[in-house]
Every structure is written in structure tokens, then in C-alpha cells.
Write a structure and sequence with these properties.
Elements (H helix, E strand, L loop, with lengths): L8 H7 L2 H4 L18 E4 L1 H4 L5 H13 L9 E4 L25 H10 L3 E6 L6 H4 L13 H11 L3 E5 L7 H18 L4 E5 L19 E3 L20 H8 L11 E3 L12 H13 L4 E3 L8 H7 L2 H7 L8 E5 L3 E7 L5 E7 L5 E6 L5 E2 L3 E5 L5 E4 L2 E6 L4 E7 L2 E2 L3 E3 L1 E3 L5 E3 L12 E3 L9 E4 L2 E4 L2 E4 L11 E3 L9 E3 L5 E3 L4 E5 L10 E5 L8 E3 L1
Parallel strand pairs: 1-2, 1-8, 2-3, 3-4, 4-5, 5-6, 6-7
Antiparallel strand pairs: 9-10, 10-11, 11-17, 12-16, 13-18, 14-15, 14-17, 19-23, 20-31, 21-22, 23-24, 24-25, 25-26, 27-28, 29-30
Length: 540
């Protein structure tokens, strides 16, 4: 008989799937006709903060055209915080700052449209914008109580993109969903297609990764604000470095689809704080993660090296692929990370990323990224050079570097994605609270179709949220099964038996629902395989 493990009822509830309980968590993207691929453009904040003006924005638009960026897909010119008069007019309408934007916001929109570009603008859903919250700009002109009025104003100005920034410690995630949805609906009511970009994380608990926001917005920030550094040591708090943001965003691949994309924040390429290798990784990883490619540098004075990165046509093509998929993590050992992104037409893009401090070889195989056949062509996304392989994919990668190959040839297979259902209860194998922390122990929970209950079975691994189902090395009966970074080891290999059991290759133990309980939140662990009903699972 199993050793009794204490399990408080309250603890069971806490372990349950919080994501499933949130309002509006839907599988479908916001269908407003925009962002069928990740948006590309430029935003004023990273380089200029509040120091913006009509002439600056027009100059950036001119540079976007003359540099050739527009013709490569960069469209949106986004005017961030501090563009507005601190006071609404007598009718409660927003106004542009008359000194900074003397021609008015509609005239600015007309200028951008005349250049073949699109107009983006910033606002906040509460009483203050971020600059106002931090007392670096006067007034309190947020959209709270003015949602429909402001949406009509933006449409009248010809706005094509709204960045909507929470910037407050107040409000639950349910409050955020409800409040962000008000502006979503207000924008829809104008009849103008406006890309809707939200950030729920500013000065707040980091709610961006906690749900699939695709029913609310076209793009949603996953982390706190990016800084022009590689690694700040933050898990998800201010400020974030490039590497830290990658750690948070990679596991959220299941949320990305046409019309809805994870947003790891604007790019820092060309701003001087990163090495050339780090900037190349930054751009390559944003491309692989189907992230918005929103430049944040001064486009008027770009170096050749900066232009080489931002204008790389092969990485842009990977980012803009019409399938709209974010790369899945194939393996990660804490230093070497392999990502693969399926592309329209059957090619697969693979990134070999070295997060460590010294050069190392990063390797994978055609089979691991979903390719089968005898010969494949690898095109280096940086150089354009091609090589052939019978299956091995490998490169020596410098510290903080990323090699990207576009892999063609053979046949592309699609891994099976399924829900795994416990026989006695009919409840699904669930990642509590969509946590991607190593060591997270799955539970059973009411089946709801959420991404935290979608499991990909490929190459003997069982994966959810970019992590692998893992039996701890040396596990004995009663040990917890857990999620862990995929590493290709046998303790992450599983066999789905004909009797419905799921058996660990290394441990020989089976997935077991603790004590044959059926309540939401019951832990799933490892136990000697008996084929008892609490070890039987079906896939639907």
C-alpha cells in the first residue's frame, strides 16, 4: 500500500488550473483582420522616452522608407507615451500636445499613410499613462471611462495600432481582462481595423504569461520592460534583459497563431548595450518566436551592422511565415537551447542558441525537429550559404550566439497534440496555473481545452508549454512526475502502452493518480506499473 501523503483540500484547489477559471480564455484569436503575421515597425520609447515631437516622428518615417525597411515589411510607426496634451478638451476628447505636435495627430497620421506606413499610438486603460503614473509627465488622461470616445478619436485620426499599457499595481487579472476587453470592443465598434497591443505587466504582477490573451488582443506583452542588456538576472521583473525575456517567452509557444502573438517587447538592436553577437541572437530569437519586430533604435543614424541585422531577409521571412507559429523548444540543458519553427511549404527553421559564456557546439537532428527522409538542405539564415546533411544539425556557436538554419527536403511530420485523460475521473492531465517552472508537478483537472492541458507526443517525449514530462533521475515508486527543460535524456522518454498506461523508459514506473482520487487538483506521480484504473489514460 502506498505511503500516505498529506494533502489538504485547500492545497488541492490552489494546485488547480487557474488559467481555466479566467474569463474569456479562448482558443480563437481576436478576429479583427489584422496581425495575420507578427507586426513589424518602430516605436519611439526605447531611445527617446518622452522626448518626442512631430518632426522626430516624421524623420523616423522618412528613414524607414529610405533605408529600405518599409519594403522589407516594417510598417508601423508607433508614437509612445507623452504625445498628448495633459488636458482633454472641453468635450473630453484627447488632444495632441500643441507644442510637440503642432500640426495635430490626424496630420501626422496622414503623413505616415502618405509614406505607405501605418500610424501607431499609445494610451493607458486606467486614469494615467505610465509617464503620468511615474510623475514624469503631467495630467491624468488615461482612457478609463472614455474608452468608446477615445477609440472613435483614434479612428478619426487614422490610427492603425494602439499600444494599451496597464501601468498600475491595482486590479486582479480578471479586472485586467474585463478592462482590456472594453477597449477591444470599442475599437471594433469604430469599424476601423486597428491592431490592438496590450501590456498587463507594468507595475503589476506579471499576468502576461498567465493566460492566452488572444481573445482580448492581437499581441500581448509577456514580461516587464526590456532593457538594452543581455541578462539582468530577473525571472520576470523590472528590468528585463534579452536572455531573461527568452526564458519567459519560449514556453508560451502554444498561444501564438495568426492574429494573436506573444510580445516579448520592442527590440534593442542598434542601441549600443549589446555586443554584435548578442544583437544577432536578439533578432534571430524574436524572429523564431513569431514576435513583433518593432525596432527601438534611431533609424536616422543606423550603422551598417545594425542594418544588416534588422534587414536580414531570411530571418524576416521566418518571422513573417503565414502559418504564424512560434518555435517550439526541442531541447535545453541550461546552456544549449534548440528551437524549431514549422514553416508554410514544409520547411522548418531551427535555432541553435548558446546561452552560456563560452563557445560550444549545439546539436540536434532532422528527426527531432519533425523532418524525415534521407537528405536535407540547411540554409544559414545569416550568410545564406547552404549545406546538406543526412540528418545531423550542428554548429559551433559563440557565447550568447544563435545559429539559424532553414531546413528543407524530406517530409515534415506534425507531432500529435492531444489531451491525456485519467480513466476513473475523466479529468485531464493538467499543468497547474500553466507554470513553466522546472519541477512543476502535474495534476488532474476538469478538461477545458487550455494549452496547459495540451500535450505533444513526439520522439518518445510528452511535452506541454515547451517543457518535457520528466521522471527524476533515480526515481522510486512514489516520486513525483514533473515538468523539466527538455534534455533528450531517457528519463524524459515515455511509452504509451496498449493497456492505457504511460511508462517511463528510464524508471520503468507509470503515471499514477495519487490514491486513485478523482478530485480536481489531485497530484499525478510515479508508481510501480500495475495497470490499475488510476494508471490508465486515454488520449482525445
Amino acid at each position: 500500500m502506498k505511503k500516505i501523503r498529506t494533502m489538504l483540500a485547500a492545497g488541492l484547489l490552489l494546485l488547480g488550473s487557474a488559467v481555466a477559471a479566467l474569463p474569456g480564455s479562448a482558443a480563437q484569436a481576436l478576429e479583427n483582420g489584422v496581425a495575420r503575421t507578427p507586426p513589424m515597425g518602430w516605436n519611439s520609447w526605447n531611445t527617446f522616452g518622452c522626448n518626442i515631437s512631430e518632426s522626430l516622428i516624421r524623420g523616423m518615417a522618412d528613414a524607414m522608407v529610405s533605408s529600405g525597411m518599409r519594403d522589407l515589411g516594417y510598417q508601423y510607426v508607433v508614437v509612445d507615451d507623452c504625445w498628448f496634451n495633459p488636458n482633454r478638451d472641453s468635450s473630453g476628447n484627447l488632444q495632441g500636445d500643441p507644442t510637440r505636435f503642432p500640426s495635430g495627430m490626424k496630420a501626422l497620421g496622414d503623413y505616415l499613410h502618405g509614406k505607405g506606413l501605418k500610424f501607431g499610438i499609445y494610451q493607458g486603460p486606467l486614469d494615467k499613462t505610465c509617464a503620468q503614473y511615474f510623475n514624469s509627465y503631467p495630467g491624468a488622461t488615461g482612457s478609463l471611462g472614455h474608452e468608446a470616445q477615445d477609440a472613435r478619436q483614434f479612428a478619426a485620426w487614422g490610427v492603425d495600432y494602439l499600444k494599451y499599457d496597464w501601468c498600475s499595481p491595482n486590479g486582479t487579472i480578471n479586472d485586467q481582462v474585463t478592462t482590456f476587453a472594453k477597449m477591444r470592443d470599442a475599437l471594433a465598434a469604430t469599424g476601423r481595423p486597428i491592431l490592438y497591443s496590450i501590456n498587463s505587466n507594468s507595475v503589476h504582477a506579471k499576468t502576461g504569461p498567465q493566460r492566452d490573451w488572444g481573445d482580448v488582443a492581437n499581441i500581448w506583452r509577456t514580461t516587464e520592460d526590456i532593457q538594452d542588456v543581455w541578462d539582468t538576472g530577473q525571472t520576470n521583473g523590472y528590468p528585463m534583459g534579452v536572455k531573461n525575456i527568452v526564458d519567459v517567452t519560449v514556453p508560451l509557444a502554444g498561444y501564438a497563431r495568426p492574429g494573436a502573438f506573444n510580445d516579448p517587447d520592442m527590440m534593442e538592436v542598434g542601441r549600443g548595450g549589446l555586443t554584435d553577437t548578442e544583437q544577432r541572437s536578439h533578432f534571430a530569437l524574436w524572429a523564431m518566436m513569431a514576435s513583433p519586430l518593432i525596432a527601438g533604435n534611431d533609424l536616422r543614424s543606423m550603422s551598417t551592422a545594425t542594418q544588416t541585422i534588422l534587414k536580414n531577409p531570411r530571418l524576416i521571412a521566418i518571422n513573417q511565415d503565414t502559418l504564424g507559429l512560434q518555435a517550439n523548444q526541442i531541447s535545453y540543458d541550461g546552456t544549449r537551447r534548440v528551437l524549431a519553427k514549422k514553416l508554410a511549404g514544409g520547411d522548418v527553421a531551427v535555432a541553435l542558441f548558446n546561452q552560456g559564456g563560452s563557445a560550444t557546439t549545439v546539436s540536434t537532428s532532422a528527426a527531432a525537429i519533425g523532418k524525415s527522409g534521407g537528405s536535407f538542405t540547411l540554409q544559414d539564415a545569416w550568410s545564406g550559404a547552404t549545406t546538406t546533411t543526412t540528418g545531423g544539425i550542428s554548429a559551433s556557436v559563440p557565447a550568447h550566439g544563435t545559429v539559424v538554419y532553414r531546413v528543407s527536403g524530406g517530409t515534415t511530420t506534425t507531432p500529435a497534440t492531444t489531451t491525456i485523460v485519467s480513466a476513473p475521473s475523466g479529468r485531464c492531465l493538467d499543468v497547474p496555473n500553466s507554470s513553466t517552472a522546472n519541477g512543476t508537478q502535474p495534476v488532474i483537472w476538469d478538461c477545458n481545452g487550455g494549452t496547459n492541458q495540451r500535450w505533444t507526443v513526439t520522439g518518445g517525449t510528452v511535452q506541454a508549454l515547451g517543457k518535457c514530462l520528466d521522471a527524476p533521475v533515480g526515481a522510486a515508486a512514489g516520486a513525483k512526475v514533473q515538468l523539466w527543460d527538455c534534455n533528450g535524456q531517457t528519463n524524459q522518454q515515455w511509452t504509451l502502452q496498449s493497456d492505457g498506461t504511460v511508462r517511463g523508459t528510464a524508471s520503468g514506473l507509470c503515471l499514477d493518480v495519487d490514491h486513485n482520487l478523482t478530485a480536481n487538483g489531485t497530484l499525478v506521480l510515479l508508481w510501480t506499473c500495475t495497470a490499475a484504473t488510476n494508471q490508465r489514460w486515454s488520449r482525445i
